[in-house]
Write a structure and sequence with these properties.
Layout (H helix, E strand, L loop, with lengths): L12 H14 L4 E2 L1 H7 L7 H14 L7 E2 H13 L2 H12 L6 E3 H15 L6 H12 L6 E3 H9 L2 H10 L3 H9 L6
Helix pairs in contact: 3-6, 5-8, 6-7
Length: about 190
């Protein structure tokens, strides 16, 4: 790529170059494996719950499911976290929770993901069980024990407290800070 080359209508080109340089420095092959992803974020040696969560995040970013995050997938992930509209983020969260990919989240899936997130983030003022029960109580409108994407998005968007809680709990900006700063062990 030439130094002045940028896409038409592409505002933050210097930012993309910054990420590209960082990505290629950390990952010269241009293909980030799960192992490298964990290493980059300083997240090796997690307990099984934390490991499972990081693998889910990795798989969700690995859009073509080839087992690697390439630069375009990496940028898509960064754009989502930094600039994504709330419904895009909620769709992403939903995909992250829907472990079996059946289009619904049940209590077990939400509980296991939230337990894993707590293992990484540490800070929270309610247990994983309390969180899961509260989410279902607030937004499982037909009480079938499962949340569809529509129920999830409309439920979270119509409840400010829940929106704030989900946004804070699943905030990936600390992951991005590590990537931006290039420090491997800052989490």
């Amino acid at each position: 790529m030439g130094a002045k080359e940028s896409l038409p209508g592409d505002g933050p080109a210097p930012e993309m170059h910054h990420y590209y340089r960082k990505f290629m420095r950390e990952c010269p092959s241009g293909q980030l494996s799960l192992h490298e992803f964990k290493k980059l974020l300083g997240l090796q040696g997690l307990d099984p719950q934390g490991d499972m969560y990081i693998k889910r995040v990795f798989d969700t970013f690995d859009l073509n499911q080839d087992g690697f995050i390439d630069f375009l997938e990496f940028i898509a992930a960064i754009n989502l976290v930094i600039r994504g509209k709330i419904d895009q983020k909620l769709k992403w969260y939903f995909k992250l929770y829907d472990a079996d990919g059946n289009g619904c989240i049940d209590k077990k899936e939400l509980l296991s993901i939230f337990t894993a997130i707590q293992a990484i983030n540490g800070h929270t003022n309610m247990s994983a069980e309390e969180f899961t029960n509260m989410v279902f109580q607030k937004i499982d409108v037909n009480n079938d024990g499962e949340l569809t994407l529509e129920e999830f998005i409309s439920g979270v968007e119509s409840d400010e407290d829940l929106m704030e809680l989900i946004t804070k709990s699943f905030d990936l900006s600390n992951v991005l800070k590590v990537i931006q700063s290039g420090r491997r062990h800052s989490i």
